[in-house]
Amino acid sequence: MTPCGNSSSWCSAGEECCAITGFCYDPSKPLLCAVPPVGTYFPCVHDDDCPLPDDFCMGATCGAPGGCKRPPTPSQCTGQWDPVCGCDGKTYTNEVCAWASRIAVDHKGQCDG
Q: Are residues 37 and 69 in contact, defined by beta-carbon separation less than 8 angstroms?
């Protein structure tokens, strides 16, 4: 990702400067130039859209556009049982434990099956 401030002159051919994020983006992917969801810092569709390599893309639903989020550390994953189903189809102890594994939450409760 290339920072551009507000000038497309810093962007590669075919890219535009997003006034919202201050980064160059491919105009065929307009979701990458959008206001990110609350609790996130950068719009994304996939994990590799995030500017920082350790961050993950957290969408409102699995596979939906969302925002980049720094995952909690594994030590922040407590044993408090409040199960959630991750977008990978696995049940996690709670939301923080899913996020610590860089997995967005599909829904509250255990996964089916």
A: no
**Helix, coil or strand: residue 59:** strand
pLDDT digits (tens, 9 = 90+) for 71-89: 999 999 988 999 999 999 9
Domain boundaries defined on the chain: 1-70, 71-113
Residues facing 59 on adjacent strands: 66
Architecture of domain 71-113: 2-Layer Sandwich (3.30)
Distance CA 54, CA 74 (A): 13
- Residues of the chain whose pLDDT is less than 50? none
pTM assigned to the model: 0.74
